[in-house]
Amino acid sequence: MLFKKTSSSSRNLLTVLALALFIVALSLVILTSLNPAKKMNIFGGGFADGYKAARVQAIKLSPQLSMNQGGMNIATAKVTAVSDNSITVETNFFVDERVDGVGNTRKVTLAKDGKVQIRTQKDSSVFAEENKNFQAKINSFKISEKLPTPPPPYETKEGKLSEIAVGDMVTIQSDSDIHLAPEISAKEIDASRMTQ
């Protein structure tokens, strides 16, 4: 008899708990239906909202990314294709094509008054000789003289867009925000080329 009583009270307790759970669930459904604007926000707004929220948090935590919040008009990228009037580059922007409508592959054209500079790494023997001469100037330097400038490791020349090569690293400067621009109009492109 004692066993039957315990079984009955357990069953009653489970019934009460199930009923309470049903009432709570029903209350949530009713409250949600009264405010349809908040329906999606209870469980999050999906991938796009989550991605944008993650980007905001990453920008807050990264000084480098937060500097670009006022507008990004300089970028470093790798050249993947070249034509007479444009280059295609692969950037490393914090974007997702599904959310932002643009990915990291961008077409770059030169603005009407834009310029191209091509930097080529100097031959190691030439650079070593220039460094040797620089060290000699430093060793004989007098305070009354102007401090000598160290030699750059590359040669710079003005060029054309078509002279940029696939594989070059470029620094692109624009007058407008380029973060979400599918096509970039550059006022200056600096291309760096390593010698083989």
Model description:
The chain has 196 residues and is α+β, with helices and mostly antiparallel strands. The chain has helices spanning 2-34, 39-42, 47-61, 63-67, 97-100, 124-139; strands at 74-82, 87-90, 105-121, 154-159, 169-173, 183-193. A 5-stranded mixed β-barrel has the order 1-2-3-6-5. The longest helix has 33 residues, at 2-34. The chain is elongated and about 100 Å long.
Secondary-structure blueprint of this entry?
Elements: H1 2-34, H2 39-42, H3 47-61, H4 63-67, E1 74-82, E2 87-90, H5 97-100, E3 105-121, H6 124-139, E4 154-159, E5 169-173, E6 183-193
Parallel strand pairs: 3-6
Antiparallel strand pairs: 1-2, 1-5, 2-3, 3-4, 5-6
The level of helicity is: 25-40%
Strands of the largest sheet, in order across it? 1-2-3-6-5
Low-confidence stretches: 38-43, 66-70
- Please tell me the total number of domains: 1
Biggest beta-sheet profile: 5 strands, mixed, barrel
Comma- or semicolon-separated keywords:
27% strand; 196 residues; 6 strands; 6 helices; five-stranded mixed beta barrel; alpha+beta
Describe the structure in brief.
By secondary structure, the chain is α+β, with helices and mostly antiparallel strands. Helix content is 39%, strand content 27%.
